[in-house]
Specification:
With 317 residues, the protein is α/β, with parallel strands linked by helices. The protein has one domain: Rossmann fold (3-Layer(aba) Sandwich), CATH 3.40.50.1820. It has an eight-stranded mixed β-sheet, with helices on both faces. Strand 5, helix 5 and strand 6 form a beta-alpha-beta unit.
Length: 317
Amino acid sequence: MIIKGIFGLVVVFALVVAVSYVKALRNEARARANFPADGQLVDVDGQTVHVVQMGLGPDVVLIHGSGGNTRDMDFGLAPALAQNFRVTVIDRPGHGHTPAISPTGDTLADQARLLARAAQKSGVEQPVVLGHSFGGAVALAWALDNTLPPSALVILAGASNPWNTPLPGLYQATSHPVFGGLVRMMLSAWVSQSYIESSIVEVFSPQPAPNGYRDYIASPLILRRSALRANALQRRNLLDQIITQAPQYGSITIPVEILHGTADQTVAFALHADPLSHQIPQSVLTPLPGIGHMPHHSALDETVAAVMRAAERADLR
């Protein structure tokens, strides 16, 4: 009886895995069909990079955060900036329509170099580079590299300095070398809309998400197994890279605007923005009282103003 019971459990498990695999494939195919690339696919030494451009004027490059894509940036911020700038929004490796670079996780330096080369091939010159959250760490890595030196930085709720909290359980599971593939498949197959909505509420807290945001950001693209894997590996490796990168910030001599909500529960103001303002000589810190982790939506006017200040300080016309 025990052997029969074990056999029955194995059969049930195999059926669940098979159904989940088929459902994940269908969900991913539907995501690609419903949310195709809406920009240009730029080839950088054999690596595809998805680039969206709009507007005319001095160049501004926007880099999205963890688990995002270009749609987070062009929901409101890119069109607002496009009134005065040529705006280039880029999918980071593993996200949106840009494939991952490395099977073991894309480093900050490699991401920055790839985005800089893609921007360069798209005609970008002397850009103001804005990075949000994880994208803030990539923007800082960009400034430390010489591929396409930015004229100024805007670090928006950016991860910049080491922390002492453990990697969240979701990222531990989705980046696990043995069980990660199964976890990612289950998420891709079965994550509900209510879970997506609660995740959006959490990341925007204490402000609400803008109307239409959930449908616009293409969450099915974020839930593909490849995107979940790339994001998890990048998050797992981030702390060690920040520990290495942070001591170099003093060498950044271009103008830097730091914009950060004081109510940010994802990337803490006191742990990241405040120390960064002392590490970079040419930085100006603008606290956003009561604003959470998404100031490019919750404090759009202030974000646009920070980019304008950065461009003026860099003498871009």
